[in-house]
Amino acid sequence: MKIRARITFWFAGILLVSLLHMGAVLRHELIGEYERRRNTESPSEKIADSIFLYGLPTLVVIVAAGSWLISRALRPIEDFTAVAERIHAGNLAERMPLSGRNDELDRLAHVINEMLGRVEAGVASVREFTLHASHELKTPLTILSAESELALSEPDLSEAERQRLESQTEEVRRLAALVDALSMLAKSDAGLPIVSMECFSFDEMTQAGVNAARLLAMRRGISMEIVRCDHAMIHGDRSNLWRALLNVLENAVKHNHEGGWVRVTLCVEGEQLRLSVENTGELISPALLPRVFDRFVRGSESSEGSGLGLSIAKVIVTAHRGTIECFRRDEGGATFVIRLPTAEPKDAEPRRASNSKDGVGDGFDPMIHPIPRRDEFFGH
After folding, report:
1. Residue 337 pLDDT > 60, yes or no?
2. In sequence order, what DSSP letters do the residues of 247-280 get, joined into one string?
3. What is the model's pLDDT at position 339?
4. Residue boundaries of the structural domains of the chain
């Protein structure tokens, strides 16, 4: 039955009940009382009594019934709203509920469900293409990189040929880094696992990351300082978290100015660690701030990289049940805050930060997680 027909029947029923009540009141007033005692009430008094006895109950009935009628009519729309709030890019399997009445709202729900099905199929197709394409591109890029490096080892190369091959090798590595980033993002969107868990010291990784980034910052006269570095054990994917850390540090160096600074603070707060990376540099516009973690978003057209570094960092941190936020500094620059659950929550005393220049932190093996080359570091 159509919604219009149901509302018409419900409203007609309410009016019918009201008319029956009015007839009963009028009969009692005008006939029953007159026959029992020939009273001498004036017509105006009888009308007033009838209005009071009929009008007040009728008003209550109409208001209550109207409220019930409206809530019943709006209930499917509230269900639609609840389902729509749960739908996002990673959850396109939700569908609008059907009441089975075959009314206008059921037809609307059916049309929306068909649209969601088409959107889900399209997004799945894009994800599958990205995943397969990135996988297929890895092999030829690896071959090109190996051939370029082999050609560079030839002793009889001229200086011009060597420079050309070095440029080609750098671009191939940049493409390989981009393909690797797209592969990780595609796996994350598809719900595939991107982390393998192990227990390790995050403070040692932080020291190693800062020392690695310091090598790049020194070229631009940017100072890097570890303000505080608490001991923090974490259960996570060492390689991916190392990558996320370097991406955030890279951002702090890349969007800085000559003679600026970067300050890193790692502290344990209950069952979480809090890593803060604060830097001077470009003033972030309010319009850009909500989009800093979006893919292919760069601070300016002249910025290096493809705009995937912070997106990858967010994917990795989220996969570890953590959060990453960006706060705008009014003086210029930004503060990135990463929060991750610790493996052994305890109140640790701040450890003295290692500011050594050797590029590695205590206990973090650079052979397993090597310091990236400049082209790898700025590959995103």
Report:
1. yes
2. HHHHHHHHT--TT-EEEEEEEEETTEEEEEEEE-
3. 95
4. 3-86, 127-189, 198-377
